[in-house]
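call fold target=Rhs family protein
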Amino acid sequence: MGYEYNDNGQLTCYVSPFGDKWQLTYDDKGNLTTVTDPQGRQQKGRVTRRITAKGYQDYHYDINGRLTQKVVHQHGFRAKTWYYQWNTLNQLIACFNPEGECWRYTYDAFGRRLSKSKVVDNHPITPPNSPFKNKRIQRVDYLWSGDQMVQETPIYADGTPAYDAQIQWLYQPNEITPTARYQRGKLHYVVTDHQGTPREIFSEKGIVSWAGRLNTWGQMAFWQSHDDYADNDPEYTECHFRFAGQYEDKESGLYYNRFRYYDKDTGQYISPDPIGLLGGFNPYGYVHCPIGWVDPLGLSSLFTGSTFTGPSDITYTVYQQPIDWDLKVNTRDGVKTNLQIVLEDGRSPMVVKNGKYEIVSLHHSKQNGLGPLFELSTPTHEQYRYSNALHPH
C-alpha cells in the first residue's frame, strides 16, 4: 500500500497492492468532498457540516441533524431507499430497508445495544404444518462486559434461542477488539492489524476460515468468507467487526459504533457527535486520517500509538500530544489561536505545561527526512540536544 498526505495530515492518495489508485480531496473545514476511484469516476459531496449528497446517493436529515432517509440511484434500476427512526436520546431504533424488512434496536442505560429484531420481512409465509415454521432467526441478543461485546445469541421466531449458532467472543483485558471466537465447540483466533481491525480468523489447526481487508474508509473487500463453507460446517465462521469498536449490520449497511452509527459509503457518522465540539470540529466526521486513528466509541478519535527502535537502539513509544486549538498565543502579528498559527503561518502549535507556554517540536529520530517523527516539548528537546538518545550521529 502507498499513501500520500496533505499539510493537515489528511490522506489524499492511496495505492492498493494491486496498483489501484484512489484520490481524495477535502474542503477548508476538513470534510471529505471528492473521491476519485481507480476508473476515474468522481463522487462529489455537498460542502456542509454533513454530507447530504454524494455521487448517486442522496441523504436526508431531520431538524436535529439525524439521517432519516438514504436513497441510492443507479442508472437503469429503480432507486433503493432506506428509512431510519430515532428516539429522544438520538439512538437509532428502527431501519426500513429496500427489501421490505423492518429492524428495531434496543439499548441499555449505557448506550450498549442489547438486541436487534426483524419485525417485518418479505419472506413467504411458511405453511402451518411445516417443521421450519418457527425456525427463522427473527432477533439477535447481545451480552456485554463493560465495553466488550462478549456474546451474540440468535433467537428463533418462537422465542427459542438458537444455541447452535451462538457466538462467544474472547478479549484481552481492556481491549475492544476480540482475540478469539468460540462457536459450536470450536475455538478460532482473530488476527488484527495495528489499529485493531480484524484481518484473519484461524482455526486451532491454523486454517484460515475468514479473511478480509477494509479500504481506507471502511468498505469491506473479502479475501475469503463463509461462501467457501456450508452453514453447518464446523469451520464456518463470520466476523462482523470492522474498524475498532465497529460492528456491521447487513440489513442497514451501517456500522454500529457504540454511541453512533457509521456509514462506510460517506466516511461519516449519520448523526451529530453526542459530546459536541469535544469530539472535533466536524460533528459528523470519523477521524481525519483513518490510517493511524480510530474512534472506538463514536465520540472522539484516538491515535493508535506504536513503538519503534531509534538509531541509538533505544525503543520509543509514540503517543498523541493533546493540542488545544483554541489556545490564544501572543505572536508578532497579534493574538492568534493555535489553529490560526498552524493553518495561516505554518508553524508548530503551543502547549501549556506547568503554567508555561511551550512549542511542540517534531523530532527526526534518524536525523534525516526519511526517519520517523515524534513529538517533543522544546525544553525536553533542548535538555537532550547533545545526548546520544536524541542525536546519536
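return ok
The chain has two domains: 44-279, 306-383. Residues 41-50 have pLDDT under 50 and may be disordered.
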